[in-house]
Each structure stands twice: as structure tokens, then as C-alpha cells.
Design brief:
The chain is α+β, with helices and mostly antiparallel strands. It is built from 3 helices and 11 strands, in the order αββββββααβββββ. An 11-stranded antiparallel β-sheet has the order 6-5-4-3-2-1-11-10-9-8-7, with helices on one face. Strand 8 (about 150-155) and strand 9 form a beta hairpin. The chain is globular and about 50 Å long.
Amino acid sequence: MLLVSRRASLFRRVLVNRFALLALVVLAGCATTQAPRAPLPQGAGAFSLEGRISVHYGEQNLSGKFTWDHTPATDDVGLASPLGTQMAQITRDEHGVTLTDSEQHKYRARDVESLTQTRLGWRMPLAGLTDWVHARPHGSQAKIERDSAGRPSILREDGWVIEYGYSGDGRAPQRLFLNYTLSEQPLDIRLAIDTRG
């Protein structure tokens, strides 16, 4: 009887130890899953956008999705195919700009426009876009036309013409149609903003 009791006690200890080990493995697996995008710090000038993008430049046409996290000191822009495959990741910080392509090759430059022109074949006006996506000028030389509700409908600045589309009586634009007038070939960029944060 004593032997049976000892065996039962030993069996319980082995079972408890195995259960604890299994729990640790499960917890470790949970810890390595990708966390959702963390919200940006809500400081002045910080925002995040998600939506769709299409680009027409000469004979080049592309369309897909974009994400953009912006703070005054940093930018993180993701460009993906319609199915979600990463095409490019662009990051800006105090050291400059880095573009990571679909094969994880990294390229660096001092500004986004020259880097995207070299690596993607078209220029992304990220500095101006930080204001244009909010329907406001980036500098002091912009020319603005307004709709009947007083919202900017067309903005001209730095060789760009930006036309805005709104939903109902909303003040933040949902669509931007950008045309760069100084390029040798027509450059058109369309943004449809699905979410703002």
C-alpha cells in the first residue's frame, strides 16, 4: 500500500512538472508572436495614416497599400502590394533616410525625395505631405483654392498641384490627387486615406 502511495505521489509530481513545462513553452510562444502596431505618442505633429496608393509615372504604374507613422523627428512609411506583400519600407530619423526593398536590401540617403527617385523611379514628397494630408500648406508660398464650405480644394506648392476629396462635411480630406508639374514625364500620385490616428 505504501509503495502504491509513493508511486501515486511521484506520478503527481511528474505530471505537475510536465504541466508547468508545457505552460512555459506556450507562454514563450505567445511572447514571440508579432504585437499589433503600437499607437504613436500623442504629441504635437504626430499622426498615423493607413490607406491605398497608386502611382503613375511615364509608363510605370503601381498600386497598393500604405501605412505612415509620423512624429516631428521620425517617419515610418510602408508600401505594400494590394495583397499585403512589402514593396518598400522607408524610415527617417536624425541620421537620414533608409529604404528597405522587398528583398531586404537597405539604401540610405539624406532625403526621401532623392532616395525614392533613385530606388523606386518616382519621387515621394514626404516633407510636403506631412502638411498636405491635413489640407494645409507646407510653406508660405502655397496658393490655395477653396470649396463652398471653405475647405482647400486645390493647393499648389513647390511644383505640386494637390486636389482634395472629402467625405460629406468632413474637414479632413479622404483623397488626395497629386501631380508634379516639373518632371519630364507626368507624375501622378493618388492617396485614399482609410484611417487616421
